[in-house]
Structures are given as structure tokens and as C-alpha cells.
Amino acid sequence: MFSVLNNLVKLKGNLYITDFFDILIVALLIYSLFLFLRNTKTLMVFLGLAIAATLYLFAKSFNLYVTLLALKYFIGVSVLIFVIIFQNEIRRYFEFLGLIGSRQLKVLPLATRSPTTSEIIQACVKMAQAKIGVLIVVQGKDSLDQFVDGGVPLDGVISEELISSIFEPRSYGHDGALIISNNRVSKFATHLPLSTNFKEIGKHGTRHSAALGITELTDAFAIVVSEENGKISISKDGKLKTLQEFTDLEKEFEKYIKAKFSKNVKESKLKKIIKEDFLLRLGSLTVAGIIWFFAAYQAGIVEKTYNVPFDNLKVPKNIIIQEYSPKELKIKVSTRGEDSFKDIAVKDFKINLDLSNLQSGINKLQISKNLITGPANFSIISFEPSTLLLTAQKYYPAEIPISVKTAGKLKADLALKGAEAEPKSLKVWVPEGIEASTEISTEPIDLSDKNESTVLPVKLLLPEGILLEDKMVSVSVALTIEEDK
Predict the structure, then answer these.
(1) Domain with residues 300-394, CATH architecture
(2) CATH of the domain spanning 404-483
(3) Quick one: signal sequence residues (predicted)?
(4) pLDDT digits (tens, 9 = 90+) for 138-155
């Protein structure tokens, strides 16, 4: 498929359509990395490595020998140190990527101004007035399972009384997080990943760090009540916000529910995709383009010729190819960079000629570019010859009985009572224009040395031009010999 597209769309300046797929995939990886790192302390370290890598590519392009030598060792050591120091962040990044396959398609939606949301808000407000610490996580469309540790499964109906009892200071669940999923209290007393974005956390404590941590990794909505000052904070999309008034909680909760569960979300999805993180996406695309330019475009388009034999053509069973000329097709292909040819061999190219309409005799077949297939990232520049001369013989199927032939005579007191072949007939291919024989004879069986009934293998005398359908078939003859009375 990509090979066909690439053949059709070769752009100016040695650009191929596959180059755009190349840039797009790298841009998506960079974007996901930026998305994960932008709220963590590793962002500046990553940017430092990215700048060093950019300088390396620049130095390589202009052949700055000393700079290349210094950066080569610097980047190698830096990457090793980065992996050791930030191994937890790297693990979390791959967990973040894993969310793509763990989206929950069927999440029971919360409704704005519903009894359920009112119960949550009332419970939070009352506990804030009493300065009781609270951490509630409302699941969005991302799974929370891989980020939530421990806890007690509950599957309880959401109510002010239940939530208040869980966070009552002497309760087992007071210091943990309560998870709301599918319109139920699914777990309590759970542990959440702590954020390392100290700028965003500020002077807040562990509850706020946990609320921020879960919303950095998922699309959940977290509500935190501080037991020091009784203020309510909310966290979503990796951002923490302290509310000035208790009434603001209902507004924030309503905005979140509309964004995640409203029926009109689909209508504004395209608009949201275009606007959301536009500069970050543009930056990712730009970085991917720069990497591609120095790593791929500079390699240039390389051409190579392969001699592909015609001996792997798919020939129908009823046709035999007797002769063909030429013996191979010379195909010139191009791709980006010499390294692309390392794992490519002649067997990777196929000539898909249709031989079902061949006639007995000489056939002249035209070869076109669309009949040649090869690796997806290769373009066919030219091929020769464009014509294949092929001598063929067509056959038609027939089933012919086997006739047993004998020679010599038995002893005077013995008589041949029967001679039967097994199998009794054979399926064969008969050349077109020739009438099928009425029988296939066995080689004559000498009876002069036979004294009793026996079964023995025999050879066949095939009529000229006839071919056996099963070339491995074996034929035997059962001779019935008795005393002549």
C-alpha cells in the first residue's frame, strides 16, 4: 500500500510521502514526551539534553571535529546519568504511554446538578467547615488501576454520609484517597502517586501532591480539603487550584463533567483538538522535522538495481512453462539512505504476472510497474525489459483405467485366474489438442517364474505427453494363480 502511494507521490526536492509519515510518528512521540515532562522537574534536564543533541547534529552537518568529539562523549554520559537518576520518571512515562490502550470506553457518566454530584459537594463543604482532611478522585475516561495502590474495595452508593464517615479523623480511610468510578464509591484508603512539580504544589502538603500526581497521569478530577485551613482545592490536567469560595467547587465540578461526559463533547472535539496544546504540538512537529532533516534528508536518495528471476511465478496446475526469455527482470529502485538496503534481498521483490490466460505455444506478456511489488519504503524508478516471451503447454484433466499386461507362461499345472491393478485408474493431465488414451498399460509382468498368487509393484507405460497428477503415486498388481484342474 505504502509502496504504491510512494510511487504515485514523489514530491519535489527528493521528498516522498513516507517521509511525512516518518516525521509525524516522531512528532507524536516527542509530543507525548513533552506532555509528560512539562509538569515535572525533569523537563529542564530533558531540554538540556535536547539542546546538546541539536548541537551535535549541527556540528555533524558542518563537520566540526572537536565539537563532535566532545559532544559525543558528553551526550553518552549524560544519557546514562539521566536514566539512573530519573528511572522512576522514565517508568511513569511508559505507563503514561500505556494509557492509550487502557481508555475506558464505557464509563457511566456523571450529570451536572444531579443528586450524586450534590452529595459529593455537600460532603466536601461540610468537612471543609470542620477542617477535616479530604482527598476524592473522580475518574474520567482514563483507567486509574495502574496508578492506585492498596485501598479497600467498596462499590458503595455515593452519599454525603458515606463520604463523611470515610474521612472522619478516627476512620481507617482518613489519610487515604477515595475513588469514585462509574457513579459508585469504588475504593477508599488508597495511595496515589505523588507529584514532583514543587512549583505547582507550593506550600501544600501530601494530599495536594497526590491529587496533582494522579491528574498529571490521567484525566481524573481531584478534590482536596486542607485540614490546616479548611480550604478546598481542585486538581485537573496537572494543575492545582485553591478555591476562594465553597460555591466555586460546584462551578469547577460542573465544568469538568461537561467537558468529560456531556453529549455535546463530540461536536466540539475537532475544535478542541486544534486548539488544545497547539504550540506544544507545533513545537513537536518542528523538532521532529529538524531531526528528520539532519538524520534522514541529509542521507539523500540512493538508487540500486536488483535482478529478479522469473522462476518464482505462480503457474496454474494445468500449464507447464517450457521456455521463457529473458530469465530475469532488472529493477532499479530508490530509497532514503544507504542503510535502507542492508536487509533487502532479491526475494523481497515479486513479479505478479497473471498466467491464468496462457495459451499453448508462444505467449507475449506485458510487464507494468503496478505488477511489481517490493518493500514499502522503496520506489521503483525503472525496469527492463517490459515484455516476457513465454512458451507454454496447456493440459486438461482426465481419468484413465490401468490395463495389466503379462508375458511368458505359467507352468503346465497352473492357471492365471485374475490380474488386478491397484489403483484401478489414474488421474492424469493430457496435452490440449490430443485425445486421451483409453488405457494406461503396465510394463509386461513375466509369469514364467511365478508359482503362486502374489502382489508386486509395477511400472507404467505412459502415452507420450501425458503427465500424472500425482507424480508420487505407486501402482501394484495382484496376480491370482491357481492349479489348473
Answers:
(1) Beta Complex (2.170)
(2) 2.170.120
(3) none
(4) 998 877 887 888 899 988
